[in-house]
UniProtKB/TrEMBL annotation:
Species this chain originates from: Adineta ricciae (Rotifer)
Taxonomic superkingdom: Eukaryota
Name of the protein: Apple domain-containing protein
Ranges for domain Apple: 24-64
Length: 114
């Protein structure tokens, strides 16, 4: 993530409001919260109240960054998310019952009389 200490995202339009505001004990937890959501593109961590705002669109850096003491703005760098930005889906199949059949074959040897 790209980290900008002392800056926060501020938007006039509703299109760049955070999709989630969580409590995070530190900046690392805020980063982890963002990276855990595939849709998260940026985050702001406010040290004064331990709030972590997650954004699903990349705010325009030039118009929406405001100098704020005690706040850290972070942006996800494309291609650096582990696991990668690709969406993984899984399918769960309900357990089924199976039947095992055992066949026993016996061979009887008959002497040839010699």
């Amino acid at each position: 993530m790209s980290i900008m200490a002392g800056w926060q995202f501020q938007c006039a339009a509703t299109t760049c409001l955070p999709f989630s505001t969580d409590i995070a004990s530190n900046i690392v937890q805020c980063q982890s919260n963002c990276l855990a959501h595939v849709q998260c593109k940026a985050a702001s961590f406010h040290q004064s109240n331990s709030s972590c705002q997650l954004f699903d669109s990349m705010p325009n850096q030039n118009n929406s960054l405001v100098l704020t003491i005690g706040t850290v703005a972070m942006m996800v760098v494309s291609g650096t998310r582990i696991p990668s930005d690709s969406i993984t889906t899984s399918t769960t199949v309900a357990p089924t019952t199976s039947t095992t059949t055992t066949t026993t074959t016996s061979i009887t040897l008959i002497p040839d009389g010699t």
